[in-house]
Amino acid sequence: MVFLSEFKPGKVSLPLLFNWRVLQMIMWLIGFFILWCLFFYPSLGELLFWNILIPIAPILLVLLPGVWRNVCPLATTNLLPRHFNLSKRKKLTFKQIGILNLIGVVFLYLIIPLRHAIFNNCGVATGILILLMVAIGTFAGFFYEWKSVWCSGLCPVHPVEKLYGENVLFTVINAHCDSCINCVTPCPDSTPNIKSTSTTKTKSHKLAAILITGGLPGFIWGWFHVPDSPKIEYLSKILSVFTLPFSGLAFTLIIYYILETVINKINDRTGKHNLQKKLTSIFAATAVSCYYWYRIPSLFGYGIFKNDGLLINLQTRHLGMLLTTANLLTTFFFFYWFLFRKANKKSWTKRPAVSSKQINAYYK
Length: 364
Ligand code: SF4
Fold this sequence. Notes:
The protein has helices at residues 14-40, 42-63, 65-71, 73-78, 80-83, 94-117, 123-141, 150-154, 158-164, 203-223, 235-270, 274-299, 320-340, 356-363. By secondary structure, it is mainly alpha-helical.
């Protein structure tokens, strides 16, 4: 398809960009339809959002995070003020972006367990959550440059993009930024083989990197061992959905921290940093494999809790062997992808040309 072709930075051909605009509009309409269903046909909305869109997201973030960043309906909405030149186009400091990244990780770890207590079985609550994110992102878009506040800052999906999207299939154009103003350093969209641990210069960056890299595998494991509880009435019961995910998070985080400390000592002696990169890749592969290990069976009624996360009920079809094979294949694939596939020095998207005129105007 034409819109997936690579081309030189700064030379965005109009037909190519037009194709992305069409795709953005289609995805925006799909997003709007899902949102509408969440409010008016909650069962359908929950199915479309939690059991179709979300299970596809991790593999897309592994293979082509740039595609998702280009067509995410939330990003398209939040960036409208910038596209229509209504933004004050302020620039955040490096430290502020680190703080936003850390808040994004905290958001992720707080929202996901609440799926069991609230969101998985309440389309309206999910719809309100999405609208809240639209409101924050769009409001920020009126003041700050391109993706700095939401897409590369506060968005709770962004830490996962950086963890999973370290060695993408190929680079696509950046269908949002028309020219680069260096609003984020390093720009996750434009930096080849970006990792969750690529930026650790401030305390917030470092803490965000450790929490997402070390904590996510255990958090995912714990999350899949908690059943959906549609009728939680007491706060104490709501809090109970956090226990297992946070215990898992703490467990793998401690392992990661110990290994990282040992590796840093070895690195100091040898001056090489390959081991640190491998450690990040191992944890990324473990996290995404763990997700699909539990998520694929649960889509077809073979999960730990049979009716949770169900897409289509195939319990009577005796698919046990087939699903075990699918689990083994996906795990094998992700470990190959993260550990054995050579780093290809590709970024999620091509960096648009940096406009010197724009930069001069910006710093006046
Ligand atoms: S490409 Fe440039 S302008 Fe766009 S998000 Fe990255 S740093 Fe910001």
